[in-house]
Amino acid sequence: MDNRRRNDFNKLSREQKLELARALFQRGSDAYTAAKAAFQKVYPTAPDEMIVPGLSHTYVEGVDAALDFIAGAEMFLRDPDDEWLGFGFTYELLYHAYNWHMFLILLPEGTGDLLKSVDDLKRSVETGVDQKTILKDIEDLRDQLTGHRGLPNL
Q1: Tell me, what DSSP letter sits at residue 18?
Q2: Phi/psi-derived region of residue 149, left when phi > 0, alpha when psi is between -120 and 50, beta in every other case
Q3: In 3D, which of 128, 149, 125 has the Cα closest to residue 138?
Q4: What is the DSSP letter of 29?
Q5: Range of 103's domain?
Q6: Is residue 25 in a domain?
């Protein structure tokens, strides 16, 4: 996001941001359809293998994880003896935010060439090049590219 847009967003009041959140939740399944069309407009060469996980991490599971975190924060204030803000809520929110950032980093590159590189590496393994190491690297890279990674160990 450029500085102008970031500044414009930061000027929104809390109520305006809550209204945007309400509007997103009121879209229901239309949010997914609208987001897919928007992603395809911005990234016309991106394959579905990249777009679908990005949509899931933002407009399906990610939105729910953000809502769960906020609801958990309020529940903690109502009942501070329980662990409302425990690992589960924070992990889910961080997991989806992390994968969203991976999506933003990888998507502009496109996956076609990267997946071709993975396939080339796999062929190298099949010809006898340090198989254990390269196979693990291939699987890790494939998981990254398809958005199926957990949180890094922090």
Answers
A1: H
A2: beta
A3: 125
A4: T
A5: 3-109
A6: yes
Q: What secondary structure does DSSP assign to 16-63, as a single string?
A: HHHHHHHHHHHHTTHHHHHHHHHHHHHSTT--HHHHHHHHIIIIIHHH
Amino acid type, 26: Q
Q: Give SS3 for 47.
A: coil
Number of other CB atoms surrounding residue 147 within 10 Å: 21
Structure tokens belonging to residue 70 = 């906020």
Chain mean position to CA 17? 21
Residues 64-86: tens digit of each pLDDT: 999 999 988 898 899 887 777 77
How many structural domains compose the chain? 1
Two tokens, residue 29: 């399944």
* Residue 104 resides in a domain: yes
With respect to residue 79, please indicate whether it lies within any of the assigned structural domains: yes
Q: How far is it, in rounded angstroms, from Cα 75 to Cα 99?
A: 27
Residue 134 is assigned to a structural domain of this protein: no
How much of the chain is in helix, strand and coil states, percent to nearest 5? 75, 0, 25
| Alpha-carbon gap, residue 117 to 111, rounded angstroms | 10
pTM more than 0.70 = no
pLDDT along the chain (154 residues), means of 10: 80 96 91 92 82 88 91 89 75 89 70 67 80 77 62 44
30 close to 55: Cβ distance less than 8 angstroms: no
Which one, of 27, 28, 8, lies nearest residue 17 by Cα? 8
